Amino acid sequence: MILSLCLLLPALSPSSQEICSAPGTLRGPILSLNQTSAQTGYSVLLLCAVFSKVPPTRIIFCKDGEEVSTQQGLEKKAIYNYHHAVSRDSSGNYSCGYEIKDSDNQVTRSLLSPSQHLSVTGPDLKLLLGITIPAVLVLAVVLYLLGKKVMSLPRDQRERVQLDTSNFAEDHIQYTSMNWLRSSRHPPPQREETPTYVTIALQQETRH
Prior knowledge:
Layout: H1 2-12, E1 30-33, E2 37-39, E3 43-49, E4 58-63, E5 66-72, E6 79-85, E7 92-101, E8 107-109, E9 116-121, H2 125-151, H3 155-185, H4 196-207
Parallel strand pairs: 2-9
Antiparallel strand pairs: 1-3, 3-6, 4-5, 4-7, 7-8, 7-9
């Protein structure tokens, strides 16, 4: 019984509290985002730069005081990245922190980094897909029913419809071709203007 309580004490101690809501006193890291606004369905890269002589045990990414991602600390690694999938609930203030555990399993927490705000812009991709996919399915069903209705017609009616359509296209092409040939072979005559006014003026001068 006493052994069980000793094992539970570290978990119940203040050092095990969530760092996003209860940061410590170690030097805080620096958080940067590759973009501060994004549309849903895209990804935003968060970089947490840790400045500590002792390798951190755990890296924590927070959003509005709540943990969203955690990573195990590694030696000789100072920058930790987190790819955040943007959703409608992604708008908020992001920060990061780290924990260091000593040989006695005592956990020391850092201050949180200065927060960075992420804004979600544009339409919701999931909502657009939810509207587009049913519309495409309905259109496919309508086209299928129309094609089935046409195929259900008697064979002579289908051939008559196809023949009328092809004849109309051929007649239209021939009519257009004849008009083009006529216009190219017989260009419109050009009107020649005669200097009638000058001739009349000369005649009047010779009479006087």
